[in-house]
UniProtKB/TrEMBL annotation:
<feature type="transmembrane region" description="Helical">
    <location>
        <begin position="48"/>
        <end position="66"/>
    </location>
</feature>
<protein>
    <submittedName>
        <fullName>Urease accessory protein</fullName>
    </submittedName>
</protein>
<dbReference type="InterPro" id="IPR007038">
    <property type="entry name" value="HupE_UreJ"/>
</dbReference>
<dbReference type="Pfam" id="PF04955">
    <property type="entry name" value="HupE_UreJ"/>
</dbReference>
<keyword id="KW-0472">Membrane</keyword>
<feature type="signal peptide">
    <location>
        <begin position="1"/>
        <end position="22"/>
    </location>
</feature>
<keyword id="KW-0732">Signal</keyword>
<feature type="transmembrane region" description="Helical">
    <location>
        <begin position="173"/>
        <end position="191"/>
    </location>
</feature>
<feature type="transmembrane region" description="Helical">
    <location>
        <begin position="143"/>
        <end position="167"/>
    </location>
</feature>
<keyword id="KW-1133">Transmembrane helix</keyword>
<feature type="transmembrane region" description="Helical">
    <location>
        <begin position="73"/>
        <end position="92"/>
    </location>
</feature>
<keyword id="KW-0812">Transmembrane</keyword>
<feature type="transmembrane region" description="Helical">
    <location>
        <begin position="112"/>
        <end position="131"/>
    </location>
</feature>
Amino acid sequence: MKNKALSMALATLTLLPALAWAHAGHADHGPGGLLQGLLHPITGPDHLAAMLAVGVWSALAVRPAWLAPAAFVALLAVGAVAGFVGVAVPGVEPMVAASLLVLGLLLAQRRQLPLALTTVLVGAFAFFHGAAHGTELGGAGQWLALVGMLVSTALLHGTGMALGHAVVARHRWLAVLAGASTALLGAALLVRMA
């Protein structure tokens, strides 16, 4: 049973970041609403990889562990609202890619940062993720979509934290592998945008 859980965690941590192409491939979930918001982070591999990385990194290196996920969810909402109301946020895609690079490096190294820096860094990345998603979640049900997106994001953070506590903390190489693959993906996305 333990080997099966380890295999599943390894597959999740190593394969998901490899799929993360910044905002390409989001499925169309209809005109808006709660379901669209719930599904959006799961069908956006960049968001999925970033959320899991925040959760695993938080479990391994952030104290209190809830700080980075809470900052992310709060600033994700602010960024999404900015997108809803049409605020033109420059550099959204490069910042989403940079978030993968930086979060991957932090995870791979299990790097602890001062609480203020953790909050500002994760919050800034979250704002750009929110701005990108806010422009995609427009429509009549955008506020319900936002609620769904925040719930999914929090659940993804929780999943990452659970993986971090249950598996990655016991097998340091998994953190290195997952973080390095996420960071390499972010770097590749940045190079592709250049």
